[in-house]
Design brief:
The protein has 104 residues and is mainly β. Helices cover 0% and strands 49% of the residues. It has strands spanning 12-16, 26-30, 39-44, 50-57, 64-68, 71-72, 78-79, 82-90, 94-102.
């Protein structure tokens, strides 16, 4: 999987429905004018914690994944670094990504 060279100011902000990612969690962001491709993202969790991550795209089959670094929840829970498959659940009027299984 590869990530694009997107400047940090151009990170796509995604709001998470929970305090951490898991299969079934949802990420919501603004509607996109073009296709959803590899880029920097900023995940804003329900507890207010913000984490910079990478949206990756498989060279083979164009599947998307989010590479999350290790971080700490607002309650102090340590979340290890993980990579999750994601898929667009809707594109308009807003972007919604559904988190799938863990890649790593």
């Amino acid at each position: 999987m590869t990530a694009s060279d997107t400047p940090s100011g151009d990170a796509l902000e995604l709001d998470c429905s929970h305090t951490h990612l898991f299969r079934g969690a949802r990420l919501a962001g603004p509607a996109l004018t073009g296709p959803l491709t590899a880029r920097r993202v900023r995940i804003v969790f329900r507890d207010g914690v913000e984490v910079d991550a990478e949206l990756l795209q498989s060279v083979d089959d164009q599947r998307l994944a989010i590479a999350m670094p290790a971080y700490q929840t607002a309650a102090g829970g340590d979340i290890p670094a993980k990579v999750w498959h994601v898929a667009a659940a809707t594109h308009a009027p807003t972007l919604v990504l559904a988190v799938g299984g863990r890649v790593a």
